[in-house]
Amino acid sequence: MADTTTLGWSICRFSGRIPRVLFENLWDRLYARDLIVSQETGNSRRLRVLLVDDLPADTKVMAKLLEMHGCCVRTCNDPFQCVELARQFEPHLVLLDIMMPGKSGTEVAKDLLATDLPPFLLVARTGLSDASTKAKCAEAGFNLVVIKPQSSSAIADLVRVAKRFAFAGQ
């Protein structure tokens, strides 16, 4: 079983939008062959990621890292435009900064979850690792919390988990 500290992210809570069966043994199944969208199967589907952060420099760097892992990335630096962009893009994974001016990430999360979007994995990105921040994220409906900055290997692990969720059964 992997240590969450090593991976750089932790589990908060899973909403009803994501099939629990995918995440019952998340760490044990991280590298399970039957769920991996791999090169062996010739599957070239790209994970659609919506990255929301008020800092353009952070967004640019994270977007490049996600693209290096084969993701199709759309960025948004304005929390007020996030829901509309999500409707147009229909992401598999939403990476959402929780501390933004004007509208917090937890408020944006609630707005996103109130839409009729297809199921997506909702991940909070924060520089805070305290229990109250994680509790607020869980209450807002986030599936996971990742602590900034993430290592390339932590990003790769997150992309693998998101691909399994997005492409399960396909």
Can you describe this structure in just a few lines?
The protein has a single domain (4-167), classed as Response regulator (Rossmann fold).
Give an overview of the whole structure.
This protein is of the alpha/beta class. It has one domain: Response regulator (Rossmann fold), CATH 3.40.50.2300. It contains seven helices and six strands; from the N terminus they run αβαβαβαβαβαβα. The protein has helices at 4-7, 26-29, 56-68, 82-89, 105-113, 131-140, 152-167, and strands spanning 9-11, 48-52, 72-76, 93-97, 121-126, 144-147. It has a six-stranded mixed β-sheet with strand order 1-6-5-4-2-3, sandwiched between helices. Helix 3 (56-68) links the parallel strand 2 (48-52) and strand 3 (72-76). It is globular. Mean pLDDT is 80; it is low at 1-43.
Q: Layout of SSEs?
A:
Elements: H1 4-7, E1 9-11, H2 26-29, E2 48-52, H3 56-68, E3 72-76, H4 82-89, E4 93-97, H5 105-113, E5 121-126, H6 131-140, E6 144-147, H7 152-167
Parallel strand pairs: 2-3, 2-4, 4-5, 5-6
Antiparallel strand pairs: 1-6
Keywords:
170 residues, alpha/beta, Rossmann fold, 6 strands, 38% helix, 16% strand, disordered N terminus
CATH topology: Rossmann fold
Shape: globular
Report the mean per-residue pLDDT as an integer.
80
Going by helix content, strand content and strand pairing, the class is alpha/beta
Q: What percentage of amino acids are in beta strands?
A: 15-25%
Overall tally of structural domains: 1
CATH homologous superfamily, by name? Response regulator
Question: What's the helix-strand series?
Answer: HEHEHEHEHEHEH
First and last CA, distance: 27 Å
Tally of alpha and pi helices: 7
Radius of gyration (Å): 15 Å
**Major pleated sheet:** 6 strands, mixed
CATH architecture identity: 3-Layer(aba) Sandwich
User: Could you give the count of β-strands?
Assistant: 6
Enumerate the strands of the largest sheet in spatial order, edge to edge or round the barrel: 1-6-5-4-2-3
Low-confidence stretches: 1-43
